[in-house]
Amino acid sequence: MVAVTAGPVLASLYLSFTDYTLLTAPRWVGLANYRRMLDDPQWHHALLVTDEYVLVSVPLQLGLALALAVVLNRGVRGLALYRSVYYLPSLLAGSVSIAILWRQIFGAEGLVNQLLRLVGVHGASWVSHPDFALGTLVLLNAWTFGAPMVIFLAGLRQIPAAYHEAAAVGGAGPEARFRHITLPLLTPVIFFNLVLQMIGAFQSFTQAFVVSGGTGGPADATLLATLYLYRRAFRTFDMGYACAMAWVLLALVAALTALHFRLARRWVFYGD
């Protein structure tokens, strides 16, 4: 714990107040790195790109996970097999191989454009176009819906069938039962998945690094905050500034998590 987690965390906090290039001894500069972020337009752009990525990909991912969990909860044959197959992308999501595969699929001669040519549409290189590059990362994150899907499925299995039976006897249709029974009883699980996936999306790095070749391109369209932090730390050797950015990103995620817990009182319903 001390050597692998706590030690590096405290060391990065100290380095965030220094001018450190990895090649020379750290030199104390106080809050200079944090003030520097206020005038760094590329850091501001990276935060905006990250916010857009999180705001779009997380709801899309959770929507797909919930929809598939509802389908699987109906008692399909071979449920264990489907559950394993759909969970598999979540295990591979952070791997370099999947990011490389994704880059090939959305490349100029990739599978997506080959399918579009069958209907007479000539697509661009999606990963090389500033308007679509971030969208490919959003789809990659949404594709890894396996983990929240399994949790949704477990939550659906805990809802007593008697509630749905009573509502059906009272004349409620499938849509009404889902809206007034399933969703309210599932809100604790939705909240749990929302917080976990939001934190995970803010930490996304491998996908943007591989798809953009480590540049955050094209035109900084995929420059996530983690990727910009990495470039500052290990390409320009501005480790002190990178550590400061890491702590600002940590504070941002912590604040958003606290806000979610605050707002949860209004829409999350527990058994008591």
Mean pLDDT across the residues is 90
Task: Sum up the overall morphology in one term.
Answer: globular
Give the fraction of residues assigned to helices: 55-70%
Structural class: mainly alpha
Largest β-sheet summary = 2 strands, antiparallel
Order of helices and strands: HEEHHHHHHHHHHHH
Give the DSSP E fraction (strand runs of 2 or more residues): under 5%
Kindly, what is the distance between the CA atoms of the first and last residues, rounded to a whole number of angstroms?
37 Å
Strand order of the largest sheet: 1-2
Count of helix runs: 13
**How many beta-strand segments?**
2
Radius of gyration: 22 Å
Poorly predicted spans: none
Q: What's the assembly state of these chains? A: single chain
